[in-house]
């Protein structure tokens, strides 16, 4: 259990990330490759990623180099997910390269003690080795994360819309209480289901909430309490599988493939432009399909200035509900490609 302790000043300094954090998405996507847990929810991405990496130099490098330093384990080196990545991938990469060697050495020792580090990990104190690692992170991002950028952005935008509504309706208390089933707000402490038992005292620094597309079930925080506090958590509610899943064929038969995909994409809310990018269709096509879904009572649409936000009605949400596949346990660190 992670217990996050708030002061009144911290409650005034809660922020929700405005865009996906690319280095956290890299990290969490690597975790998705190391377990079957939640794979049903990322089935389309996993199939594409496995096809991209299997039998390639990049796939071999990911298995040998990235997974060992970013394992699905109780400890991760904080310097590989720097706060600067909030301003974009390049700022994040620059922060990794510029990390003081003493800090890198300390975090590699921690990794070795708590999770097990690869034999080459001590070489990361060398700037040239960190530059090579950044090149690999960039290649991995371009190959398996960037192609899904629009879908990721739509999910984060939907989460921010939900957070904004909670904040407007019930204040920060409501926002913190509704973040995730894995988090329980008992003022002034946010109790988070976590891999280790620890306390995080914000002490007036506030908390940056980072919704993540690839994070699954269990939130993640930095290990070093002296760093700017962040909490990475899954986008709101239960992620739904792709409309290409065979179990979704009845919905596609009822609504048509594009409208079924649109309904599924709106599970977290999306604007017309975000929906157009997600579906790969024109704005005019989106306008037509959302009109049909709206008239059927499956979505509602709200306009503010030049933006239209579409969200599901209770009936629309009910049509998407399904029982997830049973997940089986799997050894940490297994990578199947």
| Main sheet: strands, sense, barrel | 4 strands, mixed
Q: Average pLDDT across residues?
A: 88
As a percent range, the share of helical residues equals 40-55%
Q: Into which percentage range does the β-strand content fall?
A: 5-15%
Q: What ranges have pLDDT less than 50 throughout 5 or more consecutive residues?
A: 237-245, 323-329
**Content-based structural category:** alpha/beta
Shape descriptor: globular
Radius of gyration: 20 Å
Q: Count every helix, treating DSSP H or I runs of 4 or more residues as helices.
A: 13
Number of self-contained structural domains: 3
Instruction: Give the CA-CA distance, first to last residue.
Output: 33 Å
Number of strands: 11
Tell me the strand order in the biggest sheet: 3-4-1-5
Describe this structure in words.
- With 337 residues, this protein is α/β, with parallel strands linked by helices.
- It has 3 domains: 2-16 and 150-234, no CATH class; 22-148, no CATH class; 246-320, Winged helix-like DNA-binding domain superfamily/Winged helix DNA-binding domain (Arc Repressor Mutant, subunit A, Orthogonal Bundle), CATH 1.10.10.10.
- It is 46% helix and 14% strand.
- The chain has a 4-stranded mixed beta sheet.
- Strand 10 (299-304) and strand 11 form a beta hairpin.
- Helix 2 crosses helix 7, helix 4 (57-69) crosses helix 7 and helix 8 (149-177) crosses helix 11 (272-279).
- The longest helix is centred in the middle third of the chain and has 29 residues, at 149-177.
- It is globular and about 60 Å long.
- The two termini are 33 Å apart.
- The model is unreliable at 237-245 and 323-329 (pLDDT under 50).
